[in-house]
Amino acid sequence: MKYAIVNGTIYTCNKSEEIIEEGTILISEGKIEAILEKDANVPEGYEIVNAEEKHVLPGFIDTHTHQGLFDGSIGWAGLDGNEMTDPNTAYVRAIDAINPEDPGLVEARIGGVTTIQTGPGSGNVIGGTDTIIKTYCESKIIDDLIVKTPSSLKAALGENPKRVYGTEKKLPSTRMGTAAVFRKAFVEAQGYIKKWKEYETKKKLAEAKGEEDKIPSEPDRDLGKEVLVKVLNREIPLNFHCHQNNDIVTSIRLAEEFNLDMMIIHGTEGHKIAEYIAKKGIPVSVGPSLVGFEKVELRNISFKTPNILWKAGVKISIQSDSFTRLRYFQVLPCMAVKEGLPINEALKAVTINAAEMIGVGDRLGSLEKNKEADVVIWSAHPIEDFYAENEMTFINGKIAYKKD
Q: The domain containing residue 243 runs over which residues?
């Protein structure tokens, strides 16, 4: 199906942050075919969608959630996000547990959220790999929703790992232990690289000499270390869960020690050390901010954090962590605006910034020719006007939600 969204105010979220009044978006084969100025002629063969007096934006992107892995509507049977049987479970994969019929994905489409990065929780020091998915697909097969997998490796500092294992008198029971578990795992992964390189060298030498009997046995595979090797090679970034400022500093120290590509997840006290984070060039996925003081490390939670980080020069996105129902996702950037973040920066934090921070900015996050057609039509600007309602969501060029 081909669509022409006409007469709307188009917020492209491209590099020039261009806004087109009464513009037209042509959608064909799941992608944006063209963006036209006012009064442009629509070619034949397109179904017209009139967005007069409406606001047309890219679909929102949630950089950190657990949707599809924690379905509380069915109790323990739907809790698949924390494999809390070992502090290092690098080998587990979100893709193996995501339920494409999770009701949270339906709510995401209502809230204008078209893409999410979802993955394991923070019960373990190293929790497993994340996956980026669209929130709609006509099939019931999770593979058809995937944008990128694995998209990152989840790691965690702070209260959660030491609470999970410390109560059982196991390592880690302190922040020292948590950092030690992380460091030990990556040192062992470096040794795994060395072992395989030695094997390949000896194998090639024996083959070159025609000494087949001297070809060594292939080392045993280790699925967890294979994932960590990809992180060491910067093929997969690291998403580091940390709230307190000291944990944020520790995460950066560990990433620098192993030369890892990382993003800070949560960054609740990032406002305390914003200049330091900016100096290090580390992006921060801020949130969840609509929670209380359930943990000590959340005692300084504030919607002022995104603005303070942005002013310092930190690249930010705004995320739900699944604590905010995604049908109300727009509340999060709205609250950041209330606490000082400029509207255009709040919009970028849930569109193009978010896409770039999770490595899909070439496909998503802005309305541009040849990008995937994830487009949402709102009754008003959803961040400028809290009462704006989503009237239609397109995902991959198909209508995924329509009001009423």
A: 60-188+220-363
